[in-house]
Amino acid sequence: MIASLGHLTVAEELLRFLRSILLGLPAGILLDLFRTLRILLPHHPAAVFLEDALYAFALCFFLQCYAWMYADTVFRWPYAAGEILGLAAYMLTVGAVWMRMLRRIRCRISRIRSFFCRAVSGRNESGAKSKKISESP
């Protein structure tokens, strides 16, 4: 099914565009991986910048691999638009559900962490230091 550049039919171009929309799936999964790391393990802004740069590089790499494998090594803008469209569809469906679940997990983790911090520091619910029995007047 490899066609020369000058003889692509509309159906072949449409199939290539639809396949490029599927590139949004691995792009969305990778984005959710980075967002999960940021939420559960907060880190320095320089590390966030490096993660963003790595993500942008990965998107470009996915798109270039697609052009090499399925588009006769020719990059066309509709392929990039298809990848962005697929990423948007992923983020509005699966990505939104994943973020809701991740917020709940983060909330539970922060509650557990605050409980243990209060238990270790000896503070009660109001934040005042709890008195020992021997310290009562």
Tell me the layout of helices and strands.
Blueprint: H1 10-21, H2 24-40, H3 45-70, H4 77-121
Helix pairs in contact: 1-4, 2-3, 2-4
Pick out its properties.
137 residues, mainly alpha, elongated
Percent of sequence in beta strands: under 5%
Tally the beta strands. Answer: 0
CA gyration radius, whole angstroms: 25 Å
Q: Can you tell me the residue ranges where pLDDT is under 50 for at least 5 consecutive residues?
A: none
List the domain count as a whole number: 1
- Main beta sheet: none
Question: Can you describe this structure?
Answer:
The model has no long low-confidence stretch (mean pLDDT 84). The relative contact order is 0.13. By secondary structure, this protein is mainly alpha-helical. It has one domain. The longest helix is centred in the last third of the chain and has 45 residues, at 77-121. It is elongated and about 75 Å long. The chain is built from four helices and no strands. The chain has helices at 10-21, 24-40, 45-70, 77-121.
Could you give a quick summary of the protein structure above?
With 137 residues, the chain is mainly α. It has helices spanning 10-21, 24-40, 45-70, 77-121.
